Amino acid sequence: MRKWFTSSSPLGLSPARKAISYCLLIFWSVIVLFPFYWLLTTAFKLPIDVSSGPKYLPFGDFQPSLNAWDEMRDFIPRPYRNTVVVGVVSSLLALFIGSFAAYALLRFKYRPRIGMVAVFILCGSLAVALVVVAGVYWWAAVLIAGVLFLAALATIGKRFKAALANDDIAFWLIAQRMLPPVAVILPIFMMFQQLGLLDTLWALITVYTATSLPLVVWFMRDYFLSIPMELEESAFIDGASRLQVVLRIVLPLSVPGLVATFLIVLTFAWNELIFAIFLTRGDSQTMPVLVVAQNATRGPQWWNISLLVLLMVAPIVIVAVVLERYIAKGILLGAVKG
């Protein structure tokens, strides 16, 4: 009896503790996986099977049916294609821009004056106001704001003393994620309306790229910290340029971090709903909007919703399983500094 509670090694568990651990893991796995099982079974149920009470076992409690697929197959291709294009393109753009921005924040020292940052924001607000309120062409508004900013930079720019550091800029970037989308959706809607980009994939790609950039910069900045500076210094001694160091040393060593970050921002873009509802109509509609549309006047069409959610979840799960070793390594190494 005693051997059940005695470990064979200092780092091992006793047989009793192993049994308890496996039971807890199995119990937790059932809790985590049961919603996916329920989605899978509901997607193959008839409406009467969904409304008549819980039925768990196919071929026992109910007969599987392709009713949901027959109802939705004509509506799925375009939103699914839009979701894939918008999610992949915006994630790749955010990863490309954000990785270089993260490296720059880590390796270069920036001291932007707070006063000039405020002037830049005012000039940007003026450009938006000229487009939205006065009806000025967007290129003319940008030109006017740019000229005013350059004039302020040349005249009063040196009078501002207080400046931001790299850490302040990084914090300001990630702080943008604290702002709820509903707080900025109206000006974004009006801006794209004036630009004639409503109900286009470019509108969603632009917004998703902008909202993903803070996450990419934050994650990749932490990951770049784990790369020894001596590798870059050795390359500089051998005559490599900064761009060559980034492309041939830093980025190849950062593949796990890049993969993990890409999957994270892809998941956010894949599931985003608020911007998609306001900025799309029919041509550029994405899958989350199609899912919400199933809550019709007759009530939620759970069989259709389950099918659509399964189709949305499946690609992300497959990509995560295939890239699991990169994701785990990227997250763990990115969490270690110094």
Characterise the protein shown here.
This protein is mainly alpha-helical. It folds into 2 domains: 32 residues, no CATH class; 214 residues, MetI-like (MetI-like fold), CATH 1.10.3720. Helices cover 69% and strands 1% of the residues. Strands 1-2 form a two-stranded antiparallel ribbon. The chain is flat. It starts with 14 loop residues before the first helix and ends with a helix.
Q: What key attributes describe this structure?
A:
1% strand, flat, mainly alpha, 69% helix, 338 residues, MetI-like fold, 16 helices, single chain, 2 strands, 2 domains
Instruction: Give the biggest sheet.
Output: 2 strands, antiparallel
Number of strands: 2
Please give the share of residues in helix: 55-70%
What is the first-to-last residue Cα distance?
Answer: 48 Å
Q: What CATH architecture label of the largest domain applies?
A: Orthogonal Bundle
Strand-residue fraction?
Answer: under 5%
What structural class results from the helix and strand content? mainly alpha
Instruction: Write out the CATH superfamily name of the largest domain.
Output: MetI-like
In CATH's first tier, which class of the largest domain applies? Mainly Alpha
Low-confidence stretches are none
What string, H for helix and E for strand, traces the elements in order? HHHHHHHHHHHHHHEEHH
* Mean pLDDT across residues: 86
By oligomeric state, this entry counts as: single chain
Strand order of the largest sheet: 1-2
